[in-house]
Amino acid sequence: MTNIDYAALGQYVREVRTASGIKQGDLAQKVGVHQSWVSSLENGNITTLNLDRLSKIAVVLNISTYKLLVVLGYKPEPHLLSLPQELSAADKETIRRFVDFLSWQQH
Q: What are the backbone angles phi and psi of residue 19, rounded to the nearest 5°?
C-alpha cells in the first residue's frame, strides 16, 4: 500500500509556484478553487485530492501529473517508465497520465 504524503505535495507545490512567480490566488483561480484551499494544500492540511484537481495544478505549474503523484508517494512500476522513443513528447505525456490514472485508481 502506498503512503500518501499530502504535506510533501503541499511543500512541493509551494516551491514550484513561488519559483514560477505564480500567486496563490492565480493558482486557485486557474484550478477552480478558493485561495484558502491552495493555502491549506501548501500547509499540508488537505487530506483528499482527486486526480482531476491534481492534473489542473500540474498544468498551471507546468509540471507533470506524474511528478505530483511521485511527490505524493506513488511508486511507479519500473517497466511503465520507459516508452518507445518514436512517440512525440505530447504522446508520451498522454500515455504517462493515462497509466498514472489507472494505477492511482487501483490504490
A: -65, -30
Q: Which three cell numbers stand for residue 101?
A: 490514472
Q: How far apart are CA 80 and CA 44, in angstroms?
A: 29
pTM of the model: 0.71
Give me the mean pLDDT over the 27-48 stretch: 95
CATH of the domain at 16: 1.10.260.40
**1 found inside a domain:** no
- C-alpha cell belonging to residue 77: 512500476
CA distance 1 to 10: 21
Q: Do residues 52 and 94 lie in contact, with contact meaning Cβ atoms separated by under 8 Å?
A: no
